[in-house]
Write a structure and sequence with these properties.
By secondary structure, the chain is mainly α. Among the domains are: 100 residues, Serine Threonine Protein Phosphatase 5, Tetratricopeptide repeat; 51 residues, no CATH class. The protein is 64% helix and 0% strand. It contains 12 helices and no strands. Helix 5 packs antiparallel against helix 6. The longest helix is centred in the N-terminal third of the chain and has 43 residues. The chain is elongated and about 100 Å long. The protein starts with a helix and ends in a 6-residue tail after the last helix. Pfam families: NatA_aux_su. Keywords: Repeat, TPR repeat. InterPro entries: NatA_aux_su.
């Protein structure tokens, strides 16, 4: 009789059960490790094969993207890449107003009125008094003024209905237009006026979001400078440095050679 069987016969039933459980666990662990190693080996071979095919110029080989910093920093489709970055934020940070303000900036540049409206509504529900939200709302109204004729009637009706609860008048009822929006944006009579909010409005004015308004821009900068005299954003540009005086000409070089 083998020695192993003799050992089993000498064990108590409880100890024999523990031993068999231990053996089963060890066998199961060995099988799992073997399967894991096999998967790793298969993936390694697939990656190696794909790289070889790419080096040999196989057109059917999967392309492996290179992580080149300069290429990533200069995307050919920055707005589409921004949307890819925005999607997880809208899922994981939907309770932050900056997420929806960022969404508005993207859709504003893509000229998507319904998505602009959606972003403004979500931001409005989170903080209706946010300074950047007011700027976005005014820019949205200005955009509507310029693009109303090209909007679908159903889209215009939806915007009319949804924008009114946020303090906006109907598209068809706006008579003051861009001038009123500009006056509201540049007003400093609100109690929560801040340097950051004024800087955002100033950037929008300089970017032409409210159309040509050079006089209003200068007046707004002066008013902000009076309100926040130590803020660098509203200080006048430093005068250009004077050009360095030209070096005097060397008389020895300018003298005509004597005739021999």
């Amino acid at each position: 009789m083998p020695a192993k069987c003799v050992v089993y016969e000498n064990l108590a039933p409880s100890e024999l059960k523990k031993l068999r459980n231990k053996q089963r666990k060890a066998k199961r662990k060995a099988e799992q490790e073997s399967a894991l190693q096999a998967q790793v080996q298969v993936k390694r071979e697939q990656h190696h094969k794909a790289r070889q095919q790419q080096e040999q110029g196989d057109p059917e080989a999967p392309q492996l993207d290179e992580l080149i910093p300069d290429k990533l920093a200069r995307a050919e489709d920055p707005l589409e890449q921004a949307i890819k970055f925005l999607q997880p934020l809208r899922t994981l940070a939907a309770d932050r107003i900056d997420t929806h303000l960022m969404a508005f900036e993207i859709y504003y540049r893509k000229e998507k009125p319904l998505l602009m409206l959606q972003s403004i509504k979500r931001a409005f529900r989170l903080d209706s008094s946010h300074h950047h939200l007011h700027d976005c709302l005014l820019r949205f109204k200005c955009w509507l003024d310029d693009n109303l004729a090209g909007l679908n009637a159903a889209v215009a009706a939806v915007i009319n209905k949804e924008i009114e609860p946020m303090g906006g008048c109907s598209i068809n009822q706006r008579t003051s237009g861009r001038g009123a929006a500009l006056a509201l944006a540049t007003s400093l009579r609100y109690a929560d006026v801040s340097i950051a909010g004024c800087s955002d409005v100033l950037d929008a004015l300089r970017a032409g979001d409210f159309g040509p308004c050079e006089a209003e821009l200068e007046a707004y900068v002066a008013a902000c400078r009076a309100r926040f005299p130590y803020a660098r954003a509203f200080q006048p540009a430093p005068p250009p440095e004077p050009a360095a005086p030209a070096a005097p000409a060397d008389p020895a070089l300018s003298a005509e050679p004597a005739d021999n």
